[in-house]
Amino acid sequence: MSPNATATADTTLNPTARLSADAVVVGGGAAGLAAAIALGRSRRNVVLIDAGEPRNAPSAGAHNVLGHEGISPLELLARGRAEAEGYGVRIIPGRATGASGALDAFTIEVDGGALHVDARRVILATGLVDDLPDVPGVREAWGHSVLHCPFCHGWEMRDKRIAVLGRNENAVHQVMLFRQLSERVTLFLHDAPEPTDEQWEQLAALGVGVVTPRVERVVVAGSQVTAVEIEGGRPFVVDAVVVAPRFIASTSLYEALGGERTITPFGEQVTAEGRGATAIPGVYVAGNAGDPMAMIAGAAASGVMAGAAAHGDLAAADLAALVHARTRPFSAAMEAANSAAVLGDRIHGV
Q: Which residues contact 332 (CB under 8 A, 6 or more apart)?
């Protein structure tokens, strides 16, 4: 087993520094930090690479985080970094720009080659990018009064005037969930397909109005939505807009290592089994890169499982190496004896 020693390379003085670790974690969000902590607590030598661009940075508070309801996402990550460093995890600010190698000999390139991290195992907690509708005002209020998840933000929008901006066949499903939170929900079809007869009945039963012209823009004051404006300039006064982003996981490193991203109706991701193991031996995925729907608590849980799985894999490999080292002298002696016997037979002509 490897001691959880602090890496010795000085990345400030040496622009082409190289670090070695049992495991390298790419991504400093909830999933990556949880994975690093799980490994650090098992006395593994861990390097975590963090580009410092958390997906939930625009949000005022994180929700459904047991014991930390409403905490600032940035504060939560700061606490997580302190915990990880307390277990000897070395956190490297920078962007992972390349990946190569295979089991027991991976290399992650940081900032275009300014640093290389060699590791036996890789955990990709690289997250995703929200591909938002191309409607003016959406991005400006994203994470504040433009949102997509009723579990992440719904309580804060209760009883408000909510516009569901249709983008795909999921629009009616979003209406159903947000209608539980407010009686003042309107569906703007925009790019969504025409509802089926059954869906029209559902919308009528919910008392949800439907606006069919396309949306031209979302009117915002700062980060607060004030209206939705449709073609022709007619405004509808609302307090919040619900959108359906496409979830584009950051899969470039996985693909550089020989993996293939999975395309789904909702975006792109890395496919893995329940404990994060991917199709590439020694490479694990955690958080939104493998589960775009995971909220903070779910992402952190997947990080713990991926970290534990990577440690278990390393422990099995370490044990196999110890057993091999223990039996090698006996095997070498037997080989020498067999060679001597064969040589003796040849000398005596047998």
A: none
